[in-house]
Structures are given as structure tokens and as C-alpha cells.
Design brief:
This protein has 7 helices and 2 strands. It is mainly alpha-helical and about 200 residues long. The longest helix has about 50 residues. The protein starts with a strand and ends with a helix.
Length: about 200
Amino acid sequence: MPYSTGPKGPKPGIDPRRLRFPLLRIQQQLHQLRYAWRRQPDKLRRILLEDPKREWLNYRRSWRYKRPRPRAAERRQLYDEWLFNEIKQRQDAIKQLQELAKQILKSLSEVEAAISQLEAQVGQGGGSMVARPQKDAASLRKEVETEANFPANSVPMRHLKWLEDTLERRRRKRYPRTIYKKPYNPRASSNGRRRSSSSSRSSS
């Protein structure tokens, strides 16, 4: 139904002033989704962006005033336990972030459907009013999809790979599949072989 905005006569479409409250509701929903993605999982992001080497040094500094101090075997065990717990904590954080991204994308698709429905009602009269929410929704979708993808070269995945490789290397060193044989050293006298009793007797 046409509406009149002044001396130029009637214009096609709906009066943009009637779209004020639907647009405000859509913008409020977008703001809530943006807040839920950027502010709520800050603790998870801090866990994923922490440098594991620095975290391990901070953990070791906590032993400084412990009495008795951990011995070498206990330190090795503590390091293995810390690596395992750190890997599990980071994997759980990635899983929680991906679950949150799924929920936000689902709600965002509903908001985008409401925006397209409003755009169909507006027609040519107030198309510019719908352009801003469309742009905000598209940028938020791109941001969520990019961050929740976790490519292999991202900082969280590089930290996680370093932790997993370190733990695997320590396990292989402690529990090798085959017995490790020392290489032959021509300068060594025995090279790991015990001298026979006959040779010892003859020398004596």
C-alpha cells in the first residue's frame, strides 16, 4: 500500500516508520548473538591461546618453596600428567567452542530468515533500512565459521600439536617397541661385552 512522505506524492511499499520496532528487535538479536560469541567464551579462548611452554614454566615455579622438592622421577611423572591434562583441557575447550558456534549459527539463520521476510514486505520503499542488519548478520556468520573451523596453522592447533607430539615422544622414549642397541664404538674397550674369564686369567 503506498504511503505519502511529503509534497512529492505517494511512494510504493510500506512506510519505513512502521519497520522501526521489527528492525530494533532484529538488531537486538544480532547484538545478543555477537555478545554470546565474542564475550562469553573468553575463558575458553584464553585456554587455547596460552603458550604451553610458558604455562609449564609457571607450573614449575610453584615447586620453588615446596619441601621436600619433587625428585627427578616424580618430576618426570608430573610433567607427563601435566601434558595429558593440558591436552584434554584444550580439546574440551575446542569442543565447547564448536558446540557454541553451532547454536549461534542456528539462531543466526532464523534471524536472517526474519530479515529476508522483512525485506520482502518492504519492497522498494525501505530497502536501505534492511541493508545494515543484512551486512551485520553476514559478517557475524563469516566470523563464527572462520574461528570455529580451527585450521591446522592456527595458534590453538599448533599449541595442541606441540603438546601431543611432546607426550608421544616421551612415551616412545620410556616405552620403546624394540630394545635400543648402542652403536659400535671402536674406541671403547668392551663395547658392552664382558671379557671372558680365560682372557682375564691369561692376562693375570
